[in-house]
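Data deposition worksheet. Section B asks for the primary sequence of the deposited chain exactly as it was used as input, without tags or linkers unless they were present during the calculation. Section C holds the resulting structure in token form. Section D is free text for depositor observations; keep each observation to a single sentence. Incomplete worksheets are returned to the depositor.
Section A, Depositor: J.P.
Section B:
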Amino acid sequence: MKQQKCNYFPSLWRRGRGKGLSPFLLLLLFSLSLHAQRQDILLNNNWSFRFSHQVQGDTRRVDLPHTWNAQDALAGKTDYKRGIGNYEKALYVRPEWKGKRLFLRFEGVNSVANVFINRKHIGEHRGGYGAFIFEITDLVKYGEKNSILVRANNGEQLDIMPLVGDFNFYGGIYRDVHLLITDETCISPLDYASPGVYLVQEAVSAQEAKVCAKVNLSNRATDGAAELRIQVTDGSKVICKENRSISLKQGTDIQEQLPLLIQKPRLWNGCEDPFMYQVTVSLHKNGKQIDSVTQPLGLRYYHTDPAQGFFLNGKHLPLHGVCRHQDRAEVGNALRPQHHEEDVALMREMGVNAIRLAHYPQATYMYDLMDRHGIVTWAEIPFVGPGGYADKGFVNQLSFRENGKQQLIELIRQHYNHPSICFWGLFNELKEVGDNPVEYIKELNVLAKQEDPTRPTTSASNQNGDLNFITDNIAWNRYDGWYGSTPKTLATFLDRTHEKYPEIRIGISEYGAGASIYHQQDSLRQPSASGWWHPENWQTYYHMENWKIIAERPFVWGTFVWNMFDFGAAHRTEGDRPGINDKGLVTFDRKVKKDSYYFYKANWNKQEPMIYLAEKRYRLRYQPEQTFMAFTTAPEAELFVNGVSCGKQKADTYSTVVWKGIKLKAGENTIRVTTPGKKPLTDVVVVEYKEDGSLQ
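Section C:
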């Protein structure tokens, strides 16, 4: 393959043509198609669906995104349907499209997709979380209806990541499907599902930014000349531009590399200023624009210090992070844009500035939102171990190893241009017993560096061993005070590990405890993690104590609460309902924020004044004297019981105010907390005290 190289970058297309295309925003592409010859048509509506065993054609109409496990998996059925579902759609191919190039792009099918055009098999994609694409230019009938058949299989596969996981393996075409139409000469969508444009940030500072734009071009037309143009804008103003004349031979794919230099750049600065330039790459023939792709460019530099944590653009930035699974009540993993937007709004309200998108690549739109809101992102492949379960996350066979490498390449190439992504995650909770994954992790780490030398790698571990010393950063999944032990053991672990290995970059990739908003208790007692009783006040205590330990140790480069939201795990039977992991700070339906959510909001979001009275869902009290607690951004607060002041208390270092020994009268009591000042903040709850009650 012919390459024109920048002086300072290795090629990202050395592996040649791949199998997919990353999704672009539909509105953006539609607007681009008005000026270029590229069209992006959404194919989400009017599919017929049946399971493969329903051979008599018992079909039903569905629209995408769709999963067939939205009911059975979320009902806690461990035998939820894992098999093959057939999706079929009639596509009318317009006669005027002849002479163009046609591609089918799938943003996600879990986990094996076999695609047929007019009943002819055109390809297979193995992996449930990456995008993929097939060219259908020569396979369709123009001026006629064509059949698209997709056989989606979420059955267990021994050679596809992930092998196991503490989450549901939803089946179906659960993300968008597109028809992409381009000129015969185009910016290629065929490089492992990438947009065909890579913006490599070679050197960035407050003074200047050196960027290399790598553009993959594909030509089916006759030999000829073309012009490649690149333009960087900051909204309406052109910052810089580059042009290059190129010659294209029929039937060839090449990569062109153009250097860009931006003086005194405005940096992508996290939540404080998530500014992004727009880079438009266009292809011209005979003075006519024939193709165009626009990508975001968020210029930033960062590093992780073993002693002082994470730095963004030269300034220390404590990463206040959460983890997130891509599912929710009623729809499973078939999420729509509004679902992602709602999740991000809840995160930003709480003050989240970092996220671990676990345990697999998530929707491109989610990464777009992370860019837009300035949330530092950990993106990872689904190399998932069994955690506390008996299965294995790694099987040492060639097909499995190759599949993992394929998924890593897809992740990096599809999402290369997202400035929010600062870490590539390589595994979660693997074990060195049996087939030992250490050497394979080393291979993945080398591959990640080859694909992207600009970003560090990281991993999430819950084991001792050599696997903790491979990636650039390492983080641990810790549940001190939930799966046994106490929060104090987290402090011991962090201090001992930092003292023994002062050179390694230590993070906390998971910490959390289950909680049901329906489980309330008078006293503070640690429950059984595997039991049905998950009182909310223990989760609150857990997070308060763990966060204090983390916040006092600046060498911890990042922390990620497990989990931002309750999520589906059909095999779980603890908490108030089967099939749910209830460690979220927000309920599965996103309707209720648990008390621990407000604790973090008071600590992480100082821009939004607030006060919140904890344990307000515990309405029936049996002790004559009570402790009341509030979380607030104010320096102090006052408590009133039935209109009578119980005094002012100052907030502690962790935005918490406590009143002890508060006496209640028999019957209903109105509890009110308020902040001082001309614009006081107030929170109120009515509780009932039963004099003749016994301890609950």
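Section D:
DSSP finds eight helices and 44 strands in the chain.
The first strand starts at residue 2 and ends at 4.
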